[in-house]
């Protein structure tokens, strides 16, 4: 039963799978002659508690330490320039990489119980998908050296309750916090200038967002499906966006791009269109009045607002997009402030209406109503 190994000085590389599943191996000595550690080399060495990687090593292969469940700490020397896929089995070993400049994709295997991560202070970026589906991850400390957070970086981290994004970060990638169902709050620093598509999609516990004046680009569906969202604030001085009545509004186009259950659409003319999927999945929204300044309701604007029971649409609206009210299962009456003829003239996309909803035309001045 192999428990301890001393590799001779003549060895230049450790080949693939050499010690794979040596479950009784507790220690190994690697000489300074070794320059590379192959794929799966120590995979499944569940009793391995200590290992020292010499400064001669430049490459660690795919899955090299996967399932080394007893290995609590490891120092990776500055000589290492290549770290393969899924090298670490859900432990926090990535923080021990002294010279790491980027936390790369698939370095961490999150199938196990990774709960906390503290990245080293010289980490410059978090790449695509690196902590994707770390379901047990509850907290992470991101150092001030990080400048960008990649696509899907925390996708599916369902236990993550809060995260502090440092002032050094300038961009948040697509799907970054997708399905982070426990995330209740997020502070976006003034350094961030862009938030990519669906960044916080389905963060169903998120209650409040504050957008700094530095953000000048918000892509599609950033807060789509954030069903618990109550407050939306944009700091004064933002050149592109502003907030009013808990609505996120693109100022120049006068488009409401994100709404929430407490939204009151302003009637001062600052909103002329309800944007694509603006209230998508807002399950707590119960009623909404669309002001007379609005001329269009976009694609999927109120898609799956399942608690919506009341809506008032003015005769200023000339178009209603595809699936605008699809899935609004509680909506039985749509009140239209206009005549039947005006309603018939409204351009409507396919599947715009919820099942069993009745449109009541009240007339332009709430005169004699008529159901259609």
Task: Describe the model.
The protein has 372 residues and is mainly beta. It contains one helix and 30 strands. The chain has one helix spanning 340-345, and strands at residues 4-6, 13-14, 27-29, 36-37, 50-52, 59-60, 82-83, 116-118, 125-126, 139-141, 148-149, 162-164, 171-172, 185-187, 194-195, 208-211, 217-218, 231-234, 241-244, 247-250, 255-258, 273-274, 287-289, 296-297, 310-314, 319-320, 333-337, 347-348, 358-361, 370-371. The strands form seven sheets. It has a seven-stranded mixed sheet, with no helix packed on it. Strands 9-11-13-15-17 form a five-stranded parallel sheet, with no helix packed on it. Strands 23-25-27-29-30 form a five-stranded mixed sheet, with no helix packed on it. The radius of gyration is 27 Å and the shape is elongated.
Notable features of this structure?
372 residues; 7-stranded mixed β-sheet; 2% helix; 30 strands
**How many DSSP-defined strands?**
30
Name the strands of the widest sheet in spatial order: 19-20-21-22-24-26-28
Into which percent range does the helicity of residues fall? Answer: under 10%
Radius of gyration: 27 Å
**Number of continuous helical runs:** 1
Low-confidence stretches: 89-107
For the record, give the distance between the C-alpha atoms at the N and C termini, rounded to a whole number.
Answer: 82 Å
Shape: elongated
Mean pLDDT: 86
What structural class do you assign from the helix and strand content?
A: mainly beta
Quick one: biggest sheet?
Answer: 7 strands, mixed
Beta-strand content bin: 15-25%
């Amino acid at each position: 039963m192999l428990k301890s190994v001393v590799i001779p000085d003549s060895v230049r590389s450790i080949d693939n799978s050499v010690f794979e599943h040596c479950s009784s191996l507790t220690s190994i000595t690697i000489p300074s002659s070794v320059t590379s550690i192959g794929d799966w080399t120590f995979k499944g060495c569940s009793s391995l508690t200590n290992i020292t990687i010499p400064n001669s090593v430049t490459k660690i292969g795919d899955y090299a330490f996967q399932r080394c469940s007893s290995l609590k700490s490891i120092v990776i020397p500055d000589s290492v320039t290549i770290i393969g896929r899924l090298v670490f089995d859900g432990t926090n070993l990535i923080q021990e990489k002294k010279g790491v400049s980027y936390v790369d994709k698939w370095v961490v295997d999150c199938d196990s119980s990774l709960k906390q991560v503290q990245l080293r202070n010289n980490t410059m970026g978090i790449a695509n998908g690196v902590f994707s589906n770390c379901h047990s991850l509850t907290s992470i400390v991101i150092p001030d050296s990080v400048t960008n957070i990649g696509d899907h970086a925390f996708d599916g981290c369902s236990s993550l309750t809060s995260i502090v994004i440092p002032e050094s970060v300038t961009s948040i990638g697509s799907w970054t916090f997708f399905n982070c169902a426990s995330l209740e709050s997020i502070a976006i620093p003034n350094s961030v200038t862009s938030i990519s598509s669906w960044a916080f999609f389905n963060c169903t516990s998120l209650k409040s967002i504050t957008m700094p004046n530095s953000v000048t680009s918000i892509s599609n569906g950033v807060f789509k499906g954030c069903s618990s969202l109550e407050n939306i604030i944009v700091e004064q001085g933002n050149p592109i966006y502003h907030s009013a009545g808990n609505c996120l509004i693109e100022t120049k186009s006068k488009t409401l791009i994100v709404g929430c259950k407490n939204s009151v659409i302003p009637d001062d003319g600052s909103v002329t269109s309800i944007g694509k999927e603006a209230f998508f999945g807002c399950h707590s929204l119960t009623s909404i009045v669309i002001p007379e300044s609005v001329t269009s309701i976009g694609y999927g604007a109120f898609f799956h607002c399942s608690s919506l029971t009341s809506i008032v649409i003015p005769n200023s609206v000339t178009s209603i997009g595809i699936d605008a009210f699809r899935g609004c299962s509680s909506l039985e009456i749509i009140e239209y402030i206009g005549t039947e003829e005006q309603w018939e003239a409204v351009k409507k996309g396919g599947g715009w209406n919820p099942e069993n909803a009745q449109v009541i035309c009240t007339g332009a001045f709430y005169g004699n109503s008529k159901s259609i």
